[in-house]
Every structure is written in C-alpha cells, then in structure tokens.
Amino acid sequence: MAAPNRNDGIQMLLQAEKKAADKVAAAKIRKAKRVQEAQADADKEMEFCRKEYERNYKIQEEEVFGLQNNTEAQITATTQKTLEMQNESFRLNRESTLNGLLDTVLTISPKIHINYRPKQRA
C-alpha cells in the first residue's frame, strides 16, 4: 500500500507543479498584456504631447511671421510716404532753388580780393 500512496503523492506533486506552471504562464501573459497596454498608453500620450507642442509652435510661428509681415508693411508705408513728401518738396521748391542758383552763378560783380596788395613802383 505504500507504493500506491507514493504514486499518488508524485501525481499530486506533478499536478501541483503543472498548476503552478500554468499560473506562472498566465501571470506572464497578464504581465505582457499590461506592458503592451502601458506602452500603447505611453505612445498615445507622447503623440498627444507632440501634437500639442506642434500646435503651440505653429501658433508662435504665425505670431512671429505675422509681426514680421506687419513690420514690413509699416516700413513700406513709411518709405512710400517719405518718398511722396520728398517729391512734393522737390516739385514745390525746384523753380525757386534753380533761380537762386542761376542768379548766384550768373551775377558777376568784380571786386578786388581783400588780400591783394598792389606792388609799388620804384
């Protein structure tokens, strides 16, 4: 009778070992699933963060380029206004300036230079 008990004990140990191996395998499978789910969640969160950073970057980029375009438009407008004012000033003062210049150049009034000393004859 000792022999059958021994076989029963071995059978029980083998069954217990098999159950333990099954539990370990099931735990490994659950762990692998949790790791995959965690990885998927992390990937989703990283994608969300990346999209958020890109959206913020685009907003800031548009603000900067908008300011540059606005500044460029202001500079162009100021330059155009200055050119128009200079052209108007030229148009208004051209005749009087030319007349004054011609009067100065063409009016000849001979004078003796103040440093001139005539030589005395001996």
Could you please describe the fold and organization of this structure?
By secondary structure, the protein is mainly alpha-helical. The protein is 86% helix and 0% strand. The chain contains one helix and no strands. It has one helix at residues 2-106. The radius of gyration is 51 Å and the shape is rod-shaped. 0% of the residues are buried. V-ATPase is a heteromultimeric enzyme made up of two complexes: the ATP-hydrolytic V1 complex and the proton translocation V0 complex. InterPro entries: V-ATPase_G. This is V-type proton ATPase subunit G. GO terms for molecular function: ATP hydrolysis activity; proton-transporting ATPase activity, rotational mechanism.
Structural class: mainly alpha
Total number of strands: 0
Write the element-wise H/E pattern from the N-terminal end onward: H
Low-confidence stretches: none
GO cellular component, one term: synaptic vesicle membrane
Protein name: V-type proton ATPase subunit G
Subunit structure: V-ATPase is a heteromultimeric enzyme made up of two complexes: the ATP-hydrolytic V1 complex and the proton translocation V0 complex.
Organism: Rodentolepis nana
Q: What is the strand and helix layout of this fold?
A:
Elements: H1 2-106
Task: Write a brief structural summary.
It contains one helix and no strands. It has one helix spanning 2-106. It starts with a helix and ends in a 16-residue tail after the last helix.
